């Protein structure tokens, strides 16, 4: 094939331009994201059971739903959370499962159980939908003039902003954490009793007098033929003001007087509900979270949202401002740009290395042309496969840059040597060079592509990561090998100059100095290599020592899944004791806001009261602290350090717990970058036994030096008032149970009666007992309910109450009662070490209790189980390819024996830097397997040819090492410098870049420095053993004859 393109260089250019054009045309079509779709598909099942306690919901709804989930195709696990008034079950499927089909399967299964559910649940219906991502961003509306009316902000956002954002492509859900306006009727139960009225009377009066009356028209056909006009008849039935609602007549007396709503209630244009409040930098705000629609691209959606917000900002009142205090897409955008900068830096560094060694711009430009063509070809293949531009594909391209030039450098260096030493013409030199090295190029290309093949077939979420990296790198390498056999020889034959004895090319002073020093280094290596070959036994003993060191250091590497990135913000979960009021929670949140705003790394602080990772409630809050840009923060201001100092500062809080975390590296896999687990009651020993096991787990974790924090994710058991109704006595008094339920619901909770028009928007009309009558259980029992005769009966006539402590929510994991926990490893320890410590603690728990991992921790456990298989398959693939190329089982072993040396370099590098054995390290380790074999192939290929020409094994090995020393050092140095920007990265995404770059640089250094010494030894020793075995076999055959 090379001869064809040497004779037809234009043909090579046409193919090259086709590849480049395909990449250019498809580059703009690729989506951009941080990672591919790593999170496994999840389906959520929601059920509403108004008025039911968490225990009743768990027994009568959740357990029935869970019965039907076992056996679903592709199911990994399911977990549920039952709370007062409803339940939610999340079903997690294996990566690669079609979420649409999974949703259909779940819906079909649930059809079997619908008839067994309580009637109230059936009326509400079961909602089955694909799980949504974590928050993409939160936008906020706030005042510029210091106003404190958060309801006005929420009302404006609901009217003019939120629906606009919901219409943006890719937006799945917009949730507001402040309430818009509503007409609130605050009823005084004592006044009702005085007028002999009930809450039901108030509700009926509003429903009957606040109605839209479609009266029709005058003069419409059919009618008299001489009808001259038509007119719409308007009846003012729907009320619009506080005064109008206050004047609603509850009862008209015979004396002409009347009882109106303002006689028994206070009417105001207030809030729809009081569940949530939000503040931005300590000031009132309306906060709205945005979640992605399934399958939507985060960066594109976030950019579209921010563009629409900018457009809406021009229409805001003068005293309002829109901002985005929490935006996950910004980190992704900056991190991707950082990797692209690294890509450019790598190309420049590789070009400089080639120029340093080749010392001729023509020679240097030939490999330089190959790199962008290979990358563009890879982009075209990625587009065809539906891949995105993400961290893994970009990392694959960064590593590829140092590899892509290898094949071209080998060709150019060999052609240049033949022109200079044998004075051949460029075309003749290229032909001879390609005959010498075509086999090596094919071998290197196939080996490097084959080593990544097992990565593409790994399962689980980590398999998705491996696949994107493997395909990007393998495709680049295949393009490189193809161009090394087509374009590179065509360019060498046409671009390079022939040797001119009259005007020989002389290197400049700097190049001469470099050549002298490099030649001296090469001679020292040649002498040292010859010595190692002569002392083969000692060399093999040293090799065995290195193997032992490799095994020892690798076994001691702490494990992890993905490095915790500084994403530019931290999240703080705030939890007060059970039954704490919203006012108490607000005091703690204000203390947190003052602390966070005073930190030098803080940019903005968003606080949401009433909502947290643990659930909704008056005693819960969540805060997002956005940090300043990475370039504006000094040392000690990384997000994990900020979070750790915050945890230390609020470790002893008099009224609650605050736990700050760094967000998870992958959206959809948990809520923090630490570990997640479930404590299961497999034996069904009951709630109290589960709580005792929880306390034992928390105490042991607190005493462990490996675990920094372990926190229960859930609402603790809280005081509850159990109202016991004597149904016989109630029936004797003529009071039905549904009337009692309705009275309690509207008085203590709230009841939406209907709606009213307010500035062009329909808003709710809600009745509820006023605050003073909802403060004590005694006030509760003074409520009056109507009997069948219309007389009012006090609740305490047939009811009594008692205090008790009960669960606000009941969690189950795979059908067993469970508790959710999250935490982080102590400084200096990895999540893998913390997980092992928790496994050890779990063995001390009472029988019947166990720990199960979830989120990132589950993926980390699965990833660590795949490592031996991954390395074994990669080595096997390399072995088989080499056996097929060389038609020998001996030569491939001479190549593969160098692989552990490169692996040792990787392990030592990450050990020295204190890094764990995570996904990036594993990817780097597989890369080093291929690169170590590549250098060995360059030596072995030449040694094999020299031995075939008559040289002894030792002479062939030494001479091959000498001839290949310069290209090996050049290609290895080009690769190492190309990866250096990864190893020393800073800013957004730096943790991932360093995790990959450190191990690869260490492994390549070891494979280069020690490889040129060990490979000749392995070649001589393995071939000697193979020859002896061959001779013995031959002798045995002759004796048998």
UniProtKB/TrEMBL annotation:
Provide the topology term for how it sits in the membrane.
Multi-pass membrane protein
Q: Where are the transmembrane segments?
A: 12-32, 339-358, 365-387, 393-415, 436-457, 469-496, 540-557, 867-886, 893-913, 919-940, 968-988, 1000-1023
One MF term in the entry's GO annotations: xenobiotic transmembrane transporter activity
Locations listed in the record: Cell inner membrane
Question: What family, per the record?
Answer: Belongs to the resistance-nodulation-cell division (RND) (TC 2.A.6) family.
| InterPro entries in UniProt | AcrB_DN_DC_subdom, Acrflvin-R, MdtF-like
**SUPFAM superfamilies tied to this protein:** Multidrug efflux transporter AcrB pore domain, PN1, PN2, PC1 and PC2 subdomains, Multidrug efflux transporter AcrB TolC docking domain, DN and DC subdomains, Multidrug efflux transporter AcrB transmembrane domain
Q: Name one GO cellular component term.
A: plasma membrane
One GO-annotated biological process of the protein: response to toxic substance
Alphabetical UniProt keywords: Cell inner membrane, Cell membrane, Membrane, Transmembrane, Transmembrane helix, Transport
Q: What is this protein called?
A: Efflux pump membrane transporter
**Top-level division of the source organism's lineage:** Bacteria
């Amino acid at each position: 094939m090379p001869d064809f393109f040497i004779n037809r260089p234009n043909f090579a250019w046409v193919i090259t331009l086709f590849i480049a054009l395909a990449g250019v045309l498809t580059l703009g079509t690729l989506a951009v994201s941080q990672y591919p779709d790593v999170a496994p598909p999840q389906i959520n099942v929601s059920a509403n059971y108004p008025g039911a306690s968490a225990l009743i919901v768990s027994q009568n709804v959740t357990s029935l739903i869970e019965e039907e989930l076992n056996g679903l195709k592709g199911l990994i696990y399911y977990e549920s959370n039952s709370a007062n008034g409803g339940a939610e079950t999340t079903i997690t499927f294996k990566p690669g499962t079609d979420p649409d089909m999974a949703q259909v399967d779940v819906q079909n299964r649930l059809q079997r159980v619908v008839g067994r559910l309580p009637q109230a649940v059936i009326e509400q219906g079961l909602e089955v939908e694909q799980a949504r991502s974590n928050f993409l961003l939160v936008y906020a509306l706030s005042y510029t003039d210091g106003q404190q009316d958060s309801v006005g902000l929420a009302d404006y956002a609901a009217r003019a902003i939120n629906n606009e954002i919901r219409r943006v492509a890719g937006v799945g859900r917009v949730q507001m954490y402040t309430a818009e306006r509503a007409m609130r009727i605050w009823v005084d139960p004592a006044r009702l009793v005085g007028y002999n009225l009930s809450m039901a009377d108030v509700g009926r009066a509003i429903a009957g007098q606040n109605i839209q009356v479609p009266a029709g028209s005058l003069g419409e056909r059919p009618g008299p033929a001489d009808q001259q006009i038509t007119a719409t008849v308007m009846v003012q039935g729907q009320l619009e003001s506080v005064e109008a609602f206050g004047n609603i007549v509850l009862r008209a007396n015979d004396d002409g007087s009347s009882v109106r709503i303002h006689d028994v209630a206070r009417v105001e244009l207030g809030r729809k509900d009081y569940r949530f409040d939000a503040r931005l930098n300590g000031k009132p705000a309306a906060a709205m979270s945005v979640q992605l629609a399934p399958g939507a691209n985060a960066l594109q959606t976030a950019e579209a949202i921010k563009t629409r917000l900018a457009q809406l900002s021009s229409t805001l009142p003068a005293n309002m401002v829109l901002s985005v205090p929490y935006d996950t897409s910004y980190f992704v955008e900056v991190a991707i740009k950082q990797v692209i900068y690294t890509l450019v830096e790598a190309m420049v560094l590789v070009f400089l290395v080639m120029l340093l060694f080749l010392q001729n711009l023509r020679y240097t430009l030939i490999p330089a042309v190959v790199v962008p063509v290979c990358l563009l070809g890879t982009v075209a293949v990625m587009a065809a496969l539906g891949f995105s531009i993400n961290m893994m594909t970009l990392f694959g391209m960064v590593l590829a840059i140092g590899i892509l030039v290898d094949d071209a450098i080998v060709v150019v260096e060999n052609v240049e040597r033949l022109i200079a030493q044998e004075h051949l013409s460029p075309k003749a030199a290229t032909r001879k060079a390609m005959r010498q090295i075509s086999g090596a190029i094919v071998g290197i290309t196939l080996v490097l592509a084959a080593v990544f093949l097992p990565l593409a077939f790994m399962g689980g979420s980590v398999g998705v990561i491996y696949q994107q990296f493997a395909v990007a790198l393998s495709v680049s390498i295949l393009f490189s090998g193809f161009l090394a056999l087509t374009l590179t020889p065509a360019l060498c034959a046409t671009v390079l100059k022939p040797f001119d004895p009259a005007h020989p090319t002389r290197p400049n002073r700097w190049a001469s100095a470099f050549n002298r020093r490099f030649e001296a280094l090469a001679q020292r290596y040649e002498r040292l290599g010859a010595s190692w070959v002569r002392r083969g036994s000692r060399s093999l003993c040293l090799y065995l020592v290195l193997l032992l060191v490799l095994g020892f250091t690798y076994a001691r590497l702490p494990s992890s899944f993905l490095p915790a990135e500084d994403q530019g913000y931290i999240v703080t979960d705030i939890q007060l004791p059970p039954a704490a009021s919203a006012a108490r929670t607000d005091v703690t949140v204000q203390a947190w806001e003052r602390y966070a705003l005073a930190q030098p790394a803080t940019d903005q602080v968003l606080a949401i009261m009433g909502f947290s990772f643990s659930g909704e409630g008056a005693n819960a809050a969540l805060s997002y602290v956005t940090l300043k840009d990475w370039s504006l923060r000094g040392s000690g201001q990384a997000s994990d350090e900020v979070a750790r100092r915050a945890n230390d500062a609020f470790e002893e809080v008099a009224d609650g717990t605050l736990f700050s975390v760094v967000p998870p590296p992958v959206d959809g896999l948990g809520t923090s970058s630490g570990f997640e687990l479930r404590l299961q009651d497999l034996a069904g020993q009951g709630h109290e036994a589960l709580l005792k096991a929880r306390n034992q787990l928390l105490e042991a974790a607190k005493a462990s030096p490996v675990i920094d924090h372990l926190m229960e994710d859930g609402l603790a058991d809280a005081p509850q008032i159990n109202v016991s109704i004597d149904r016989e006595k109630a029936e004797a008094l003529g009071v039905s149970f549904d009337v009692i339920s309705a009275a309690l619901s509207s008085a203590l909770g709230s009841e939406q009666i209907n709606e009213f028009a307010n500035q062009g928007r329909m808003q709710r009309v809600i009745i509820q007992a006023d605050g003073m009558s909802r403060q004590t259980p005694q006030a509760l029992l003074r409520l009056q309910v109507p009997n069948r005769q219309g007389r009012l009966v006090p609740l305490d006539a047939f009811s009594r109450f008692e205090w008790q402590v009960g669960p606000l929510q009941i969690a189950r994991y795979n059908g067993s009662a469970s508790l959710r926990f999250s935490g982080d490893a102590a400084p200096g320890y990895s999540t893998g070490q913390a997980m092992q410590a928790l496994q050890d603690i779990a063995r001390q728990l009472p029988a019947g209790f166990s720990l199960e991992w979830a989120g990132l921790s589950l993926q980390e456990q699965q990833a660590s189980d795949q490592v031996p298989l991954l390395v074994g398959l990669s080595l096997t693939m390399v072995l088989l390819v080499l056996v097929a190329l060389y038609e020998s089982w001996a030569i491939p072993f001479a190549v593969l024996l160098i692989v552990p040396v490169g692996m040792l370099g990787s392990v030592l590098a990450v050990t020295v830097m204190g890094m764990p054995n995570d996904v990036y390290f594993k990817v780097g380790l597989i890369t080093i397997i291929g690169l170590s074999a590549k250098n060995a192939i360059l030596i072995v290929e030449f040694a094999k040819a020299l031995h075939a020409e008559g040289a002894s094994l030792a002479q062939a090995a030494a001479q091959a090492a000498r001839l290949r020393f310069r290209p090996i050092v050049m290609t290895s140095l080009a690769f190492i410098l190309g990866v250096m920007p990864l190893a020393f990265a800073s800013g957004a995404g730096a943790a991932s870049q360093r995790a990959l770059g450190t191990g690869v640089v260490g492994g390549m250094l070891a494979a280069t420095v020690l490889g040129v010494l060990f490979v000749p030894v392995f070649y001589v020793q393995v071939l000697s053993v193979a020859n002896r075995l061959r001779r013995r076999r031959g002798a045995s055959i002759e004796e048998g004859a």
